Amino acid sequence: MSAEKILVTGGAGYIGSHACVELLQAGYDVVVIDNLSNSKPESLVRVAKITGKVLNFVEADICDKQALRDIFSQHKIYAVMHFAGLKAVGESCEQPIKYYQNNVYGTLVLTEVMQQFGVKKIIFSSSATVYGEPNTVKYTEDLPVFGATNPYGKSKAMVEDMLQDLPVADALSKSRDPWKIILLRYFNPIGAHISGLIGEDPNGIPNNLVPYVSQVAVGKLEQLSVFGDDYPTLDGAGVRDYVHVVDLAKGHLNALQALNKITGCKAYNLGAGKGYSVLEIIAAFERITGKSISYKIVERRVGDIAENYADPGLALRELNWQTEKNLDDMVADTWRWQSANPNGYE
Ligand code: NAD
Ligand code: WQD
Q1: Is 56 helix (H, G, I), strand (E, B) or coil?
Q2: CA-CA distance, 231 to 237, in Å (whole number)?
Q3: Rounded to the nearest whole angstrom, what is the distance from the C-alpha of residue 209 to the centroid of ligand 2?
Q4: Which of 72, 174, 177, 259 sits a CA distance of 20 to 30 A from 242?
């Protein structure tokens, strides 16, 4: 029997490339579609180097219906892992149309073509940001998807909403081959593959904490700004649930196996279930890299919340998934990647 073939949208990106490694190592065949708007083809060269396996790469946009049709005509796809999307919160506030076009319309085109070709299994990269600002710090999946504070987050909530309607329509038409959809709500993915060959390669000055800290550690950036030290948290700094990107990638394989067991559309948190503060992250970097991280405390960043972390219990019960790597692994692996590739894939 030939291996199942998975279409990975956005597979050249940070999380997608790690998912490709896990898929290939688990014996799946992989087709990647990526327009390289936020990635380099070198990431896929490195995926091949890590795994010793080849994948099919199509440089195209998911909004390009014909390109998608060509892929589904040429390959018997079993399921889609849908990572392709724009993800910069600040940019999404400045250019909301671009975000809705790429993330929402792109997913519409993708699902339309999937349906035409009878491929009705998809795992979608959602985000804890869809919970908005709930009155709790520990997020369970039954919290309302409501009040995302920026167009990026809203685009994720809109896609979730849209995807939920697909199996409902199947039930109405008594489809014998209904949609099976898993929404994976990531918390804060960090870290890199243990080989140091692939990792996060942000364009320009990073927006997110860990890429920023690691560029300070490697000497590319001078000083980190810590956004606020007066939050009601253990040390006043913001607290987040950081999850190792390889744990996250493995979560997608578990989800793939669970697709046949679920009915309709189901959401799962992927997080460690524990938060760390910005100051704890800085301390871990200093301890593991042996470098001193220069930082200054500045005003809170608009739109930030004090603290959140996942309740990852549902993913454990139904996907048999939990994080295996700890903060030291996350920092050591980030550092291995950053120090070996100070300029990313260039
Ligand atoms: P990334 O930017 O590294 O990867 C996304 C990939 O998709 C890139 O390679 C980009 O070139 C590609 N892409 C974007 N739009 C496309 C289009 N229209 N057609 C084809 N390819 C396209 O981002 P990432 O961190 O790997 O994130 C992957 C997914 O996970 C995204 O959907 C993101 O919103 C989601 N997510 C990320 C985080 C995070 O903190 N990294 C957290 C929660 C959710
Ligand atoms: C983490 C903590 C900051 C930068 C974002 C998106 C979210 C998801 C993950 C995609 C916070 C503090 C940060 C800096 C700092 N992405 N910080 N100095 O904001 O939790 O989540 O990425 O879905 O949607 O919003 O992540 O890494 O930006 O911030 O002090 O230079 O670090 O205030 O407490 P965030 P982050």
Answers
A1: strand
A2: 6
A3: 6
A4: 259
Distance from the alpha carbon of residue 32 to the mean position of ligand 2, in angstroms: 28
pTM over 0.90: yes
Q: Tell me, in angstroms, the distance from the centre of ligand 2 to residue 217's CA.
A: 18
**One-letter identity of residue 280:** E
Residue nearest atom 15 in ligand 1 by C-alpha distance:
85
**For ligand 1, atom 10: residue with the closest CA:** 38
Nearest atom in ligand 1 to 186's CA: 43
Condensed to tens digits (0 to 9), the pLDDT of residues 128-186 reads: 999 999 999 999 999 999 999 999 999 999 999 999 999 999 999 999 999 999 999 99
Closest CA to 153 of 205, 85, 105, 208: 85
Cα–Cα dist 156/151, whole Å: 9
Nearest to 5 by CA among 14, 16, 20: 20
- CA 148 – CA 126 distance, rounded (Å): 12
- Is pLDDT at 5 greater than 70 in this prediction? yes
Q: Could you give the C-alpha distances from 279 to 215, 236, 237, 300, in angstroms and in order?
A: 16, 9, 7, 14
DSSP 8-state code for residue 34: E
Our answer to whether residue 139 is catalytic in this structure is no
Find the catalytic residue in 28, 99, 100, 152.
Answer: 152
